[in-house]
Inverse folding.
């Protein structure tokens, strides 16, 4: 059975590109962060509320990305973020960015590990069962 897909749409602006109009690699990391944030928000978890309610932050612990094709100024992109694993103090997202207009090419794909960190100690903290239910 296919896993449900969450995606946001992002337009490439001048600030996202170099002098030739090609998107900087770092811009893809920002796009992916937005998609992860909105995916969590759709599941009822927003960063500010999470910190206030649970005394914890969600932080990027690791990201692996494979760049496949360039995108350019004014491209419209679909940025996916799908929770594939929740274990202990970690959420794993599989992410893809595709061009929406034109050829629909895969731009990049990756995996992001997001850790739950206690605000007071800055140490990893296990997710509560209540949160595990929201994330699945």
């Amino acid at each position: 059975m296919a896993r449900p897909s969450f995606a946001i749409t992002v337009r490439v602006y001048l600030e996202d590109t170099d002098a030739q109009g090609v998107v900087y690699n770092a811009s893809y990391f920002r796009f992916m962060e937005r998609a992860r944030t909105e995916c969590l928000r759709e599941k009822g978890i927003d960063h500010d509320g999470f910190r206030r309610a649970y005394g914890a932050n969600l932080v990027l612990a690791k990201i692996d990305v494979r760049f496949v094709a360039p995108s350019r100024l004014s491209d419209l992109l679909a940025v996916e973020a799908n929770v594939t694993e929740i274990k202990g103090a970690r959420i794993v997202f599989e992410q893809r960015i595709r061009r929406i207009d034109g050829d629909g090419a895969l731009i990049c794909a990756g995996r992001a590990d997001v850790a739950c960190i206690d605000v007071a100690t800055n140490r990893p903290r296990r997710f509560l069962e209540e949160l595990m239910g929201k994330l699945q």
